[in-house]
Design a protein that fits this description.
Helix content is 26%, strand content 28%. It is α/β, with parallel strands linked by helices. The protein has one domain: Rossmann fold (3-Layer(aba) Sandwich), CATH 3.40.50.300. The protein has a 5-stranded parallel sheet, with helices on one face. A 4-stranded mixed sheet has the order 1-2-3-4. A two-stranded antiparallel ribbon has the order 6-7.
Length: 205
């Protein structure tokens, strides 16, 4: 039978109950589910979709490893306080997000298939403005791409997700105080489970 379980900090996920300890996900490419399964579900999350069912027909995106549609792009930028004084932004990551979005568009992906998510409102606003001003393609294409907060994207999905993490723990290690939402496993789980076909993460070392 199918059930809807409340997890991911209140997000409703459609899963197939196989046993008390096993769940099946029907959203992500199998490669994308490996880390969430091991990190948040004790390795019990099974795949109800195959690699072939999550192949992007006609899309020529240069994934670093074929058949593993994901990558983490490490930047040397630094977060800063947003103009409101209540949030964070990272200009280096915003520029990188624009490059990734442009590569997707040039690879045959349409704007409605792409979602950009970030945990900070300051970064969300900055990315929207940056892409509008600096996008390499037609401005209208970038306006059609949804840029949202991680929290507002709970329960939703896109074919391709770009996550901008914004903050790093360069000066905090081994403490986790400096990495913000990454220290919240529920929100991190939400952020990593939104994509159907491919995930791109932009963050600091």
């Amino acid at each position: 039978m199918y059930i809807a379980t409340a997890s991911e900090q209140g997000t409703i996920i459609r899963v197939h109950l196989v046993s008390d300890a096993t769940k099946v996900q029907y959203r992500m490419h199998p490669s994308l589910s490996e880390f969430p399964s091991n990190s948040f579900y004790e390795g019990t999350l099974q795949n109800g979709v195959t690699i072939n069912e999550r192949q992007s027909s006609g899309i020529d995106f240069p994934w670093p490893v074929p058949n593993r549609p994901m990558f983490f792009n490490v930047q040397m930028g630094q977060e800063e306080i947003s103009a409101s004084g209540t949030s964070y932004l990272n200009g280096t990551e915003a520029a990188n997000v624009e490059k990734i979005v442009t590569t997707f568009l040039r690879s045959g992906v349409v704007p409605s298939q792409i979602g950009v998510i970030t945990p900070y409102e300051g970064q969300r606003e900055y990315i929207v403005n940056y892409m509008s001003r600096n996008g390499a393609l037609r401005q209208q294409l970038y306006k059609e791409i949804e840029v949202a907060s991680v929290d507002s994207f709970q329960g939703r999905e896109k074919d391709y997700i770009i996550l901008s993490c914004v903050r790093s723990n360069e000066h905090q290690f081994p403490s986790l105080e400096g990495i913000g939402f990454l220290n919240d496993p529920h929100r991190l789980n939400v952020a990593l489970n939104r994509a159907r076909y491919g995930n791109c993460h932009s963050g600091e070392s």
